[in-house]
Amino acid sequence: MLFVFFALWTVASIVWLSDPGSAVNRRLGALAFSGGAGALAALLDLSWVPYAIEQGAGQGIQRLLYRLQAFSSVFSYYFVPYYFLLFAISYRGLALKRVYARTLPWLLLIPIVLCTLFTPGYNTYHPITFNIVVWWAVPYIAAGACLVLSKRVPPTAIARTHWLVCFAVLPPVLFAMVLNYIMPSVGMLRMWVYNTWIVGLGTIVFVLGLFTYGFMGIRILIDRKRYDSTLRAVTSGTAMLNHAIKNDAGKLRLFGEKMKRYAIQTSQEELLADVEAVLSASRHMEEMVGRVHRRTEDLQLRPERGDLAEVVEDALRALEPSLGAIQLHVSMARGWICTIDRAQTAEAVTNIAMNAIEAMNGQGVLTVTLTETKRELILELTDTGPGMDRKLRMSAFDPFYTTKRTGHNFGLGLPYTLHVMRKHKGTLQMRSKKGEGTSFYFSFPKKALQAEYHPARTEERIQ
Prior knowledge:
This protein is an alpha+beta fold. It contains 16 helices and nine strands. The strands form two sheets. The protein has a six-stranded mixed beta sheet.
């Protein structure tokens, strides 16, 4: 039980600290904390209280430990079903009116309050009145499990994080429903000792999720902090470097123009050709510095209302000369009017599309789709290129990392695109496998973008 105690309270701490503002994370953390409280009660019952008695602890210490054991046990029994159902409601994304969203948690407390007031108090073998509690605890857990499993998730990289949540959360809770409520209600007491293995399995899934596809957005948060610090360093460093190079390029251009006039006046053709080369190099330096600066400076959005599908279509239309023999398949339902920065969004889409076109090297299929979930609009760009191995995937979003060997690529396209999505309160995810192509998923939150659907504008465009 010591492992279960530390595992569950560690999970609770990680989930709480990762995103304190998220109702889903708060309630999942409370669920893990409640389960850990039950493990603490078991530790006190099996080990710590007997050890205190064996060591001759005073009556006051023994009474304090017993009260902690009683509180932890009852708290766990009552609040595991409660917080699980609240977590499921938030995770499922049920659209409740504000008054109902505020009232529901209090209404769900009614069975807990009634059991606390009108059932016998705690004792070691009957911590709660199981044959009464089972009638509300089991429906709470069953309803929560149905809500979690019924969550609509598009078949994208996001689906993997959903199933990680299901495998990490549902088995321990469902086993607890059977071992902690149903079996004790028919006289089979103290079955909670068998929860250790299933909680351990859930913890392993949680830890694996942190280091693979993410769990409840936690890996994304870690990545975001890393990107934040990296982009801040890149921005400050390149700002100083840009300033220095721009000044020197300006001096080259100034003196080059002076030398050019002198060469023309004295009819020195060879000197004039050399000066033209210097002026061309200075102009190229200024152009490159400008391009790097635009990609690394902090973005200032200029939001306006527009059809997201039209913005994407305009960006793709500008790339048609670059397609060659590549087939472009576009399927987007128009009519979603959003508050976005049209230019930055189009540039972000262009970056991903150009990467796909270059990866396919003139042959293949680029598929672009726009779908919706309850809370998000998801733009997917999928190519049939060579794909990426794990090493490339792990470094793809790092600033200045690039596999392209041309002088016009700085490895800033993906970091810039990620930055644009974050400015829109959205996310950018990637799925790629060597030999199977690459997919990018732009997730635009409807609420943040004030997205409204206008059926009159709807038309299906397929190329």
